[in-house]
Amino acid sequence: MKRILLPFILLALGIGCFAALKNMKPEPSPRVQETFTPSIRALTIPAKEQWHAHVQAFGNVQALRIIDCVSQTTGEVLFRHANLEAGAAFKKNETLFRIDTADLQLAYAQAKSAQAQARLTLQTEQQAAALATTEWETHIQAYPQADTKTLDLVQRRLHVEAASEHLASTSEQLAFTNRQITRGTITAPCDSRVLERFIEQGQIVMTGTPLARLWSTDAVEIPIALSLDDAQALGIAPDYIAEGQAGPQVHIHAGDTNWTGTLQRAAGQINPSSRMLTVFIRVDNPLAGPQPLVPGLFVTVDLYSTHTASVHIIPRHLLQANSTVLLVHTTEDHMLFLQEQPVSCVRIEGDTAIIDGGLKQGDRLCTSPFQMTSERMPVHIDTSIKEAP
Question: Which of 76, 308, 364, 381 fits a 20 to 30 Å CA distance from 233?
Answer without folding.
Answer: 364
